[in-house]
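YM 10:42: UDP-glucose 4-epimerase sequence, as discussed on the call
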Amino acid sequence: MRILVTGGAGYIGSHTCIELIEAGHEIIVADNFSNSSPESLKRVSELTGKIFPVIELDFRNRNEIEALFKQFDIQGVIHFAALKAVGESVTHSLLYYQNNLISLLNLLDVMDDYQVRNIVFSSSATVYGAEGTSPLKETDQTGAVNPYGSTKLMAERIIKDLATSSERWRAVILRYFNPVGAHESGRIGEDPNGIPNNLMPYISQVATGKRAVLSVFGSDYPTRDGTGIRDYIHVTDLATGHVKALDYMLKNKGAHAFNLGTGKGFSVLEMVAAFEKASGRKVPYRFTDRRAGDIAVCYADPTKAEKELGWKTVKTIDDMCRDTWRWQRHNPDGYQQPAEVHKTER
Ligand code: NAD
Ligand code: WQD
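YM 10:58: structure's back
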């Protein structure tokens, strides 16, 4: 299929581009590079040997999307483009609603006009809110605990309502748990701006010496070692989930949600130990207060994805740590300068 990958320069998008190309799909990437560098796409081309169109645009601008659909014969869309920092969503909630929801509404509207009614949407385990009991199932109650989570929950609702309104829509909603790791080449990976919000990039920057010490948020959770438990999933496994989702979408009408996780939980201290083993470096840490809004335990029941998508994870925690370390060690400052790349002329 000819797939528009929105936000394809970002962390999960760039890894998914590789798996899509390897599975024989054609891709067109559109991104405003607000949280990414075109360098990631240059490296996707290097790794796959394929040049593909890269369009700089902002999905908040409907006219720009319309021009894109005029220019390319798009058959389906994977919609990654969104802002994702939970803390920032609390301090800049309007920005999050505008960026994540106006973009989605514009995109769906243009897709409808151009009769491209196939979408895979990036959702998040955050839609299970704070009350759920792990393992979390797709049928469990949902709820949002911050504006970022609200944008995902509202987006799911918009997509489901659209699929209910017309049989012509096909949508797969993927609820990611905690994506970590990097491509095994060490050429692409996660490149957060400034101080990382998430555990894995923080640990890896402590291991390289870029940051002095990891703050472990809370030591008194009701878990086996008192620290929070999460379902970490290798970004390459996550990427292959999107290829399966496209196959599923072609065979199934309506909107369908799937958890993408391993089904296993690891604590913060277990992640530190696994990273120390993979890197051979010490990761000094100290316990601090709990982070506001955090929950003790969150992991997936991935049975539905296994049964219906025919997908399951293959990478281990050791793979996740090894690949993160390879990426971090070879690219201590991430992608650094944005490269001049083959941005397609409009
Ligand atoms: P990312 O920030 O690396 O990638 C998102 C990309 O979208 C970036 O390249 C950014 O420049 C682009 N973008 C943002 N707003 C845009 C706009 N208005 N117009 C055009 N481009 C825009 O994030 P990621 O980790 O790759 O996440 C991808 C998707 O997965 C997001 O929707 C995110 O909410 C979701 N998700 C991420 C995680 C995670 O922990 N990484 C977990 C669950 C869900
Ligand atoms: C993991 C564990 C922390 C950093 C977030 C979003 C979620 C989804 C994935 C997008 C927790 C602990 C962390 C640190 C720590 N994103 N921790 N010290 O919070 O599970 O999920 O990313 O959809 O919506 O909320 O991930 O990596 O921030 O935290 O001790 O410096 O590590 O308390 O137990 P989280 P995380």
